[in-house]
Amino acid sequence: MLRRPFLFCLFASLALPKARAAGSAVPVVAAENFYADVASQIGGPWVTVQAVMSNPEEDPHLFEASPSVARALAGARIVVLNGADYDPWMTKLLAVHRGSGPRVLVVADLLGRKAGENPHLWYDPACMPAFAKAFAALLAEEDPAHRNDYEKGMQRFLAALAPMQDKIAALRARFAGTPVTATEPVFNDMARALGLVMRNERFQLAVMNDTEPAASDVAAFEEDLKNRRVRLLIYNSQATNEASRRMLKLAGLSGIPVLGVTETEPGGKSYQDWMLTTLSALEEALAKTP
């Protein structure tokens, strides 16, 4: 679902002049908490990072920007957003700056993603390495005195992704070519990296865009489940609608394992831990069917 209601307040506060005292931490605001987590891992003690969306129990499609978001942006030197029309409320808030505001890093631009394409970039294994490098470079420009620290932080983070990358390679070797399906394209970039064959993508796009799936797409999805043509159903555990719930029920009746994935990093986990946990759950689910 890409069209969301938002509350826009305190726009005037965004235009206030900002200055950073020498030696103070660089204030960073990230629209999503997984980018905030990675930013903290890279910047260490030389940054203060605030995430706007951070509740894994909340439907991100229904998020409303509060006055506190405007206040946070008013003091930020670097702002990170997903882009690809996933967080358009952030773009509108930043438009108030008119060239005098913080440095803005749009992750979708790093991957060449545009509005209308799958915006769930963080499940693409190429996303975070690209973000980490771009963010470290921005930090070095903003705070050149700690350039070496940011480079080291970036290298540590990239090294910490190795277990995830090894897991992806192992799962691809084991399950490539396996047919799966999903209620939304949240996990599709990772599924592609794993070599899984994703079915019912038109249905998924309709659900993501908050439109009614075509009758033919609903029928095709139901046939896949009833005839066990797929080995796994992936669903967005943060946001389900009537059509998604129907498919989940049908998967249960057909004995097809389901895997819930989220759009928000769970509390107490790093990005790399979150991805590894999800990949392990996928492996367990796929191992349940012959």
Major sheet description: 4 strands, parallel
CATH fourth-tier homologous superfamily of the largest domain = Nitrogenase molybdenum iron protein domain
> Structural class of the helices, strands and pairings?
alpha/beta
In CATH terms, what is the architecture of the largest domain?
3-Layer(aba) Sandwich
The percent of residues in helical segments reads 40-55%
Strand order of the largest sheet: 2-1-3-4
The total of helices stands at 12
Low-confidence stretches: 1-22
What is the element string, with H for helices and E for strands?
EHEHEHEHHHHEHEHHEHEH
Roughly what is the average pLDDT, rounded to an integer?
89
CATH topology of the largest domain: Rossmann fold
CATH class category of the largest domain: Alpha Beta
Our estimate of the beta-strand percent is 5-15%
Determine Rg (CA atoms, Å): 20 Å
Distance between the termini: 34 Å
Shape: globular
The total count of strands amounts to 8
User: How many separate structural domains?
Assistant: 2
